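We treat protein structure as text, and this decision shapes the records that our systems exchange. The tokens are whole numbers drawn from a learned vocabulary of local backbone shapes. Below, we set out a record of this kind in full and without editing:
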Amino acid sequence: MPIATINPATGETLQTFESLGAEEIEKRLERARTAFETYRTTGFDERAELLRRAADLLEKDQEDIARTVTTEMGKPIAAARAEAAKCVKAMRWYAEHAEGLLADEHPSPADVEDSGGTKAYVRYRPLGPVLAVMPWNFPLWQVIRFAAPALMAGNTGLLKHASNVPRTALYLEDLFRRAGYPEGCFQTLLIGSGAVEGVLRDPRVAAATLTGSEPAGRSVASVAGDEIKKTVLELGGSDPYLVLPSADIARAAEVAVTARTQNNGQSCIAAKRFIVHRDVYDEFTRLFVDGMKALKVGDPMDDSTDVGPLSSERGRADLEELVEDARKHGATVLCGGRRPASHPAGWFYEPTVLADVTPRMRVHREETFGPVATLYKVADLDQAIEVANDTAFGLSSNVWTRDEEEQERCARDLQAGGVYINGMTASHPAMPFGGVKRSGYGRELSGHGIREFCNVTTVWYGTPPDVPAAE
């Protein structure tokens, strides 16, 4: 795939970029190593000041970078502005909280004595240069939620961004440079996927984090495993959205529309499978379909647009194949299911709801990365949980019920990294984020995220030997 800015609303190629050659990659790896040797010794106050400066610059740049993001991957401009603002919030949060999150931990005096020591503590130390392989769907947020904690922990960063968002990738490198970070602390590598293995195997790279597809995660994890390097993976999702009889059905349906179509439906944590109790199925379905039909599909630069284009022609084709397979095997298309006639150019697809979905259909097993929802009617909570867990993924989940026993049951039994009750999944810097099963492992954000790329070091002091008195 070429490294290029291609406007998904028009299909027009706006700019292409040359991949870095071996010599330039070598220079950047050495810069990252050299920068780490001094940056790791800085104090939290200094790191926090740098990160706050970066946050201030991003806040000032909000409109310009939002337009860049929308141009490169097609999300509505209002959502792009919100993404930039969320990054600013996370950067300031880590600037404020990192020192406390990484404070030394002290075992009890009794345990220290039992260990035979006089003093002991646990210290979180940085690992070194961390390679981040990041996706295009949240091209600012995905990077910042890695970079902010990694930099505050004292690591340096190497960003291999998706090939269709090179302008955003270069902006991020420049942002940290303008904030005053030492040379080599954060660098963008304009390279194709074929060059990732060589970078990851380089002994100067200490660890890696990837957000992306399951095949990409498997590839990075296998190389890192061979090199015995730490990885964090956030992969695909097919999140369930359970609606039970005691729920506020009107509110559940309203939020469901946003939960399915946020970011033009291209979100790992978007709700995708809507599992509805039979007693409220008809009411929820009517409201949900009406809400999906009411969405405005159009120019993502227009503030009134709800759903823009998919990020690529291939992405739309993949979505069309899933819908056509479902239709062929008996699914009912309640709305959408086609390209909008009003937008012949660009990679648009109508918000779509499929009912009568069965395990025979690919859409039952595979992630739908676009504005396509699947509906399931269930008899009770047991069946709802069974359907929800009938997936290889386990990123997050959503549950709508006022019944406290049902809430607790879902929190206990849903196989996911998150259970959001009476609301939609959303990431926040104070909350750990990640999945189970084929949605990956490790966590981003919160204290859990900042500690992922730390050397958890035990420091122990024994009784010093007696020193003879001076003559």
The longest helix spans residues 77-101. The chain has a mean pLDDT of 97. Residues 239-421 form a domain with the Aldehyde Dehydrogenase; Chain A, domain 2 fold (CATH 3.40.309.10).
